[in-house]
Amino acid sequence: MDRLMRWIGIGIVIFIAAPLVIVVPMSFSTAASLQFPPPGFSFGYYVQYFNDPTWLRPTFNSLFIGAMTTILTMALVVPATFALVRHKFWGKGVANLMMMMPMAVPHIVMAVGYYSYFGSLRLVHSHLGVVLAHTCLSVPITFLVLSANLKGFDRTLERAARSLGATPRQTFWYITLPILRPGLMISALFAFIQSFDETVVAIFISGRDAETLPRRMFDSIRQEADPVIAVISTLLFLAVFLGLIAPHVLRMVRRSLVRVPLPKPKKMAAQHREAA
Amino acid sequence: MKPYLQLSGVNKAFGDFVALDDINLDVEKGEFVTFLGPSGSGKTTTLMIIAGFEDATHGAITIEGQSLAGLAPQERNIGIVFQNYALFPHKTAEENVFFPLQMRGVKKAEGLRKAAEMLELVGLEGFAHRYPKELSGGQQQRVALARALVFEPDLLLLDEPLGALDKNLREAMQIEIKRIQKRLGVTTIFVTHDQTEAMSMSDRIVVFSDGTIEQAAPPLDVYHKPTTRFVADFIGESNLLDATIRSADEGLADCPILGQVAYRTEGQPRLHDGQEVALLIRPEHLKLSRKPLEECRHASMTVETIVNYGDNALVIGRKDTAQIRVRVPGADVVTLEEGDECHVNWTDHAVFVLEH
Amino acid sequence: MAVTVSNLAGRKNLWPWLLLAPLALYLALFFLVPLGQVAMMSVTEPRVGLDNYEKVLTGTLYRRVFINTFFTAALVTVCCLLVGYPLAYLMNHTTERRAMAILLLITMSFWTSFLVRTYAWMVLLGNNGPVIWLLATIGFADPPGILFTRFSSTLAMVHILAPYMIMNIYSVMKKIDPALIRSAESMGAYGTSLFRHVYLPLTAPGIANGSVLVFVICLGFYVTPVLLGSPTEQMAAGLIGHQIEQFLAFGLGSAMAIVLLIVTLIVLWIYSRRFGLDRLYG
Question: Could you tell me which residue ranges the ABC transmembrane type-1 domain spans (chain A) (predicted)?
Answer without folding.
Answer: 59-246
